[in-house]
Write a structure and sequence with these properties.
Blueprint lengths: L31 E5 L6 E6 L1
Antiparallel strand pairs: 1-2
């Protein structure tokens, strides 16, 4: 099962190419990144390692 242990805002995206720092996941855990519109709106993109 994929369980979310925490959420962390990495920054804001304005539609242009950008690089954001991504902290390493604690041992044994993976990371997922979601790009979401404001106010809990639709998710525009997602990636995981």
């Amino acid at each position: 099962a994929n369980v979310v242990h925490s959420l962390q805002r990495l920054g804001r995206w304005n539609g242009e190419a950008t690089t954001l720092p991504l902290p390493a996941a604690p041992g044994g855990l993976s990371t997922a990144v979601l790009v979401q519109t404001p106010a809990g709106g639709p998710i525009l993109a997602a990636a995981a390692n």
